[in-house]
Amino acid sequence: MTLHQQTTRRQFLQGTAAATAGLLVPFASRSFAFQSPNERPVFATIGLRNQGWGITNKSFKFADFAAFADVDANVLGENLEKAAQRQGKKPDGYKDYRKILDRDDIDAVMIATPDHWHTKIAVEAMLAGKDVYCEKPLTLTIDEGKLIEETVDKTGRVFQVGTMQRTESGQRFLQAVALIKNGRIGKVKKVTCGINGMQASPVIPEVKTPEGLDYDFWLGPAPKVAYRALPEMREGYGGGVPLYSNCHYSFRNWHEYSGGKLTDWGAHHVDIACWAIGASDTGPSRVTPLDYTLPVEYKEGYPVVDDQYNAATQFNIQVDMPNDIEMIITSEGDNGILFEGTEGRFFVNRGKITGKPVEDLESNPLPGGAIEEVYGGPVSENHTANFIDAMNSRKQPISDVWSHNRMLEICHLSNIAMRLGRAVNWDPAKREIVGDSQANTFLSREYRKGFEIDM
């Protein structure tokens, strides 16, 4: 630990919180207190649109932000002003994130860029001596996850992944995991993760890049292509950007930058499912696409056109998990997770947890400390609080790199199986696809020249 990091360590106060809405058992909660403002850690955020500002805004309570970076000058300027209002001092602003990594006064970075940038920035940040909070999904490929794990081991940095359902959402998901681990549905037989589908796009034409956006830098490690957009604007979450484009909010719908719903919502619900059934340190044996719709034609696993969204729009995927548990990942039905066992079933999502095992808690509550046992101690106030707790203890946080990568491998394999139109067999020990050399080529990607990871 550096001298600066030693001087920014916090002291924690533990308390007991009342049950939150939707939680049927009380649990202990951890909150923070500072001895002086000088003990607050110094953060920087890289990637500020939408979720980038969201995680930053939640963190002003715990940290001081010294710098922001974004390749869109409009987004950068707007958020610098908002930060100045929140903390009384404007952070320094950069287009190039590497200027942040060069600074010795920054303890940790929060990364909320599009997915195709995550690994490069995260690895370089750790090598520069920074702790890292990175939004989910952590990687674009399975081999990128292995590289991040190696770098965490090599550098000893603390790394939090932004799968906030492990901490937030009224603790319903912690309760769900506790129900499973306390045998309230008997032996788990099936888990269904409903993650919604998405709409296909019309043909999206090449247009002039918006003023203030460095699109070449936005593309970064991804292949160089023209900027595409339609004039219709998105309302609500993601507002201020085109409804259809190959940039900003819509990057999730392109395999070049993300993995569609499989790595968007899948990174949340598959994570909780794996945690509950005890599969956070292993993986599936087989991933089978039962039925699915790709919005464009594919050849040898790659889309043949580049002017429309290419991630799957509808899907039902069967995943063979350890202990003869069947996992279904589907775009159908309610968004959330259905657990089915030999003695009952229940459903959980961000708004509710329902089913007879939940109703039975009124007369047969979970044992005291069940939630804390799942969490590994008193439950943190929010995801940033858990990250800073880990920074102080120098232990990995609740959303660690290893469990995240294990469950994300399921999501990546699902996309590979759909792109190739066949089931894939997986060796969770070797972490490679069995007997399919073509499928194994999708475990990694080539970085565009000039944007390779600086090791």
Automatic annotation (TrEMBL):
Its EC number is 1.1.1.18. It holds the Pfam family TAT_signal. This is Inositol 2-dehydrogenase. It comes from the Bacteria. The keyword DNA damage does not apply. Gene3D superfamilies: Dihydrodipicolinate Reductase, domain 2, NAD(P)-binding Rossmann-like Domain. The lineage of its organism: Bacteria, Pseudomonadati, Planctomycetota, Planctomycetia, Planctomycetales. Residues 78-162 form the Gfo/Idh/MocA-like oxidoreductase N-terminal domain. Transmembrane segments: none annotated. Keywords: Oxidoreductase. SUPFAM superfamilies: Glyceraldehyde-3-phosphate dehydrogenase-like, C-terminal domain (SSF55347), NAD(P)-binding Rossmann-fold domains (SSF51735). GO terms for molecular function: inositol 2-dehydrogenase (NAD+) activity; nucleotide binding. Residues 205-452 form the Gfo/Idh/MocA-like oxidoreductase bacterial type C-terminal domain.
